[in-house]
Amino acid sequence: MRKRRILLVDDEVAIARALAMYLTENGDCEVCVENAGSAALAAARQFRPDLILLDIVMPDADGGTLAAQMKAEPVLKHTHIVFLTALVSRNATGGGSKTIGGLPFLAKPVDPDAVLEYIDQHVVVRG
Amino acid sequence: MVDRLAAELVPLRALALSLLTLAAAITAAVVSPETLLDQEALASGLALIPALLLAHHRRWSVVSTLLGVGLVALTIVHLAPPLFGVSPEVPIPTMFVVAPYIAVVLSAGWLGEVRRYQAELKATQLQLIQSDKLDSIGRMTAGIAHEVKNPLMMILVGTKILSKRLVNADDTTRQILQDMSDAVARADRIIGGLLSYSRDGGLDLEPADLNATIETSLLFVKHELDKVQIAVVKDLDPSIPTLKLDGFKMQQVFINLLMNAIHAIGQDGDIRVSSSVQTLAAGRGVGYRRTDRYVPGERVAVIRIEDSGPGIPEEHLSKLFDPFFTTKPVGRGTGLGLAVCRQIVEMHRGSIEVGNREGRGAQATVILRLEHPEDDYEKATDSARG
Ligand SMILES: Nc1ncnc2c1ncn2[C@@H]1O[C@H](COP(=O)(O)OP(=O)(O)OP(=O)(O)O)[C@@H](O)[C@H]1O
Ligand SMILES: [Mg+2]
User: Fold this and answer.
1) Which of A15, A89, A112 has its CB closest to that of B160?
2) Predicted complex ipTM
3) In total, how many domains does chain B have?
């Protein structure tokens, strides 16, 4: 079974690096990190992830717009996108049931184990 | 609040002015009984009553002012001939008797108008200050939350990585790593709480245990209480039914009141916090008039915070709820505490009073309705906001 491919887009370099490390070491994931929001679309096209963890507030791009652009790409249309954001509180996420612009989100600070759990639930790898 | 007061004064003022007008007409008639003026003045005086009553109705104030001016003009026209010696049988002094009354009546009316605008202005100002205060707190909190959550995330992920890597870590190290994760969770909760407190405007009503809300508020001031020798006596009635509250906002009310008591006491003394269910008897603010807040027989929760401080000087009592009224040194008090308390309590359709206890100290009393028809909330929220 191949590894699950995760694209992590976050301008916070340290967070992205640490989270990528955690997911790689503990979750059987292949993680691609992109710190520049403006380069995220190209990275997604190239990497073809199973799931994209997308920050919303970034200096050079806005996660919401990025998500819409990704959803408009034929190759990324079916890729699962989840926002990873400090904009909302955990208690506002209602256990992951609520959405921002129709997409689910995880509220920072989120336990990396919870991120793994989320990936387990939403990414099914065949072959 | 100012609005309500003005509303209560309106009928009284109208009555007083009408009586004054009548008195003017009657005096005129008495002073010069032999003239035809008595009937005219009497008629004008009577006609002024509806005009003045109307004057207290916002929408009609222009119409009624014109009406009033017209009537006064009429009276003067009737008085004018004798003034110019056209009808010598009408004594001139009558004019001097009637005129001052009319002047008083009119200026009182206008003054009422001015005062009403002042009251309105003040209410709007209060509303602006509060929404401004909440607004800026809201913006600030949202900004801080965003800035703080990213570092928290970093610490959390880092801690998790370390705990996975330190496979051979001893128990103490594990405990420390766990404590670090817990600390992040705690900081996150605090930020979440701040965010929901500063969330703008409306109430976030949920069935709540009033006594638990009081207990939490006490926890928040525990630190302040521990610094000085203040004993808190709690007398909370466990039979208080669940009531709908915005827990965070109501906590803010109790914290404000407790802080006031602590500041008043200073070094040592005691605070008594009590809650009880009471059935209201007819009295001040309890009745069937439009201005009455409660109806007799209504069941309410009464929360009282009493302190053994010096109490409040008589001349300050009427100003306590004014925004920015404070006797505390600059930097210690903003004077917004009670103003915000009142706004929050009135949004809950309750009431709040602060006064002196018999003997020594001050007391704050918050009254909250136990039954509340759902649809009344919006109205209360609107009027509490302005
Ligand atoms: N329990 C009390 N005993 C004596 N005086 C009081 C008490 N509560 C309030 N006051 C008086 O009422 C004033 C206004 O209170 P309020 O809570 O509105 O503002 P503040 O306490 O001065 O400032 P802030 O609440 O913003 O810190 C106080 O400055 C104080 O003079
Ligand atoms: Mg205060």
Assistant:
1) A112
2) 0.89
3) 3
